[in-house]
Design brief:
It contains six helices and three strands. By secondary structure, it is mostly helical.
Length: 113
C-alpha cells in the first residue's frame, strides 16, 4: 500500500511510520519473519532484531511493467538492502523464456555479493 491507500483507509497516513509500527508489533509478538515492500527493507533492518526474516515481493528487473506493484526494487538492490528472501513472479512467468529470465535474475543477485 502507498500513502494514498493508507489515507483512504483512515488512521496513520505516513507509510513508513505505519510499517515500522506494525513491524515492531509483529516482532514483539514473537513473529520471526515479515513480508514487506522492498522499499522498507532498510528501515526494518534498522529497527528490528537481525534474526527477523524479510520476505519481499515486488521484485522487478526493469524489463517489465510494475503492474499492481507500486513499490518495487530490483533483485540485487533488494538483497543489498538486507532482504532475506525475494518473491519473483511475473518477471519470470511472464517472460518469453522463463528459465533464462530466472537465470538472469539469479546472476544479478550473485553479482551483487
Amino acid at each position: 500500500m502507498d500513502t494514498a491507500a493508507l489515507t483512504e483507509l483512515g488512521g496513520e497516513t505516513d507509510s513508513s511510520r505505519q510499517v515500522e509500527r506494525l513491524a515492531r508489533l509483529a516482532a514483539s509478538s514473537g513473529l520471526r519473519g515479515l513480508v514487506c515492500s522492498p522499499l522498507e527493507i532498510t528501515l526494518l533492518r534498522a529497527v528490528l532484531p537481525p534474526f527477523i526474516q524479510l520476505v519481499t515481493p515486488g521484485i522487478r528487473t526493469g524489463a517489465e511493467k510494475s503492474d499492481d506493484q507500486k513499490r518495487t526494487l530490483g533483485p540485487a538492490e533488494a538483497m543489498a538492502a538486507g532482504a532475506s528472501w525475494l518473491v519473483v513472479g511475473r518477471p519470470i512467468y511472464a517472460a518469453t523464456d522463463p528459465v533464462e529470465a530466472a537465470r538472469k535474475i539469479h546472476a544479478s543477485v550473485q553479482d551483487a555479493h
